[in-house]
Write a structure and sequence with these properties.
about 375 residues; alpha/beta; Arginase, Chain A; 2 domains; nine-stranded mixed sheet; three-stranded antiparallel sheet; 12 strands; binds manganese (II) ion; signal; metal ion binding; guanidinobutyrase activity; hydrolase; Agmatinase, mitochondrial
């Protein structure tokens, strides 16, 4: 894909000799030969004669384009188990999945959009995709809570990043739109690692061109329905007004959950309600389960196409401080799981997780949350089997 950069590269990765024993090499080689272990083709090269207990070898990314990556006896890609491949080993892809250059042949794909020049306050979301990928090394293949087995059901890979233009937001929107048009043309469902919220506008341009106006489950501290700022119509405070103007949304099937914070207007949600959006302020979510709410959302969405746009600032900054425009008194991670798991059964055509700006959270927990929420979104896609 012309506008996608590879998340990884094809150089051989030296497998450091120190902790790498022959026993481990043998175990991994055996597992690779027989079962579902991971995306890396093991290519042991030589054995040190001076230290017979230590093997020198390489973990080699799959040779893309010339053979199917990470099939290991099945048609599916599978995140490698840390029981067989150490977590820090390998090119940094989402869930350590194989990286491939296009969405061809995939049912779902993780895509990075490292854009942050549309942010109004703290910059840094351009580094969101990389940090989400890094923290995703902790995410395993099954969802034990819901029983979802996405990698037994769908062909999934990381297809790298959109090559955004950091110095020109309209041009970035064009690059994103064109990239997503290619992704969805092949029938693949994109799961996006943001990047700030501007990116949802061109993503929805591409999705609506294929599916028609979509329903929207939008989790956010802000409605992102502003008109202009500093005279500009494109930045991370305006994407959903632009979407309304271009009829990309089915406004009777839009819900905005978790909105809060101070405002410029006495009724900051007036525009949303005028369009027919269902606004659920954070106050209506405090200290309660959101499962009943999601029952109503499912009834609202019906069986027509739905997009999930999850701004990490919908969560409380106590849990997710690594973001550009934090607001106090937000949702909890458990409520975020209730929202996403409550989308099971909907006709989901795409998802994003935006606004992770990792440098404001030295713990990495914001990106870890983002990685897990993206996995949860994968788990509720149509066609995912439950064990
Ligand atoms: Mn937002």
């Amino acid at each position: 894909m012309r506008h996608l950069l590879w998340a990884g590269c094809f150089q051989l990765l030296p497998w450091q000799a120190g902790p790498c024993t022959r026993k481990l090499t043998t175990a991994v080689t055996s597992a690779v030969a027989t079962s579902h272990c991971g995306p890396w083709l093991l290519a042991p090269l030589a054995t040190s004669s001076s230290s017979p207990s230590v093997s020198k070898g390489f973990l080699q990314p799959p040779i893309l384009g010339s053979r199917a990556p990470c099939c290991w006896g099945s048609q599916f890609n599978v995140p490698p188990s840390a029981l067989l491949v150490a977590r820090p080993v390998g090119v940094c892809s989402m869930m350590r999945l194989p990286v491939q250059a296009s969405a061809q042949g995939l049912d779902a794909a993780f895509v990075g959009v490292p854009l942050d020049t549309g942010t109004s306050n703290r910059p840094g979301a351009r580094f969101g995709p990389r940090q989400i990928r890094a923290e995703s090394a902790m995410v395993r293949r099954y969802n034990g809570s819901t029983g979802a087995a996405p990698f037994d059901s769908l062909r999934v890979a990381d297809i790298g990043d959109v090559n955004v233009n950091l110095y020109n937001l309209p041009d970035s929107c064009r690059l994103i739109r064109e990239s997503y048009q290619e992704i969805v043309a092949s029938g693949c469902v994109p799961l996006t690692l943001g990047g700030e919220h501007t990116i949802t506008y061109p993503i929805l341009q591409a999705l609506a061109a294929k599916h028609g106006p979509v329903g929207l489950v939008h989790v956010d501290a802000h409605t992102d329905t502003g008109d202009t700022a500093l005279g500009e119509k494109i930045y991370h405070g305006t994407p959903f007004r632009r979407c309304v103007e271009e009829r990309l949304l089915d406004c009777s099937r839009v819900v905005q959950i978790g909105v809060r914070g101070s405002s410029y207007d006495p009724d900051p949600y007036e525009y949303s309600r005028q369009q027919g959006f269902w606004v659920v302020p954070a106050e209506e979510c405090w200290m309660k389960s959101l499962e009943p709410l999601m029952g109503e959302v499912r009834a609202q969405m019906g069986d027509k196409p739905v997009y999930i746009s999850f701004d990490i600032d919908g969560l409380d900054p106590a849990y997710a401080p690594g973001t550009g425009t934090p607001e106090i008194a937000g949702l909890t991670p458990a409520q975020a799981l209730e929202i996403i798991r409550g989308c099971k059964g909907l006709n989901i055509v795409g998802c994003d997780l935006v606004e992770v700006a990792p440098m404001y959270d030295v713990s990495g927990n914001t990106a870890l949350l983002g990685a897990n929420l993206l996995f949860e979104m994968l788990c509720v896609l149509p066609g995912v089997r439950t064990l």
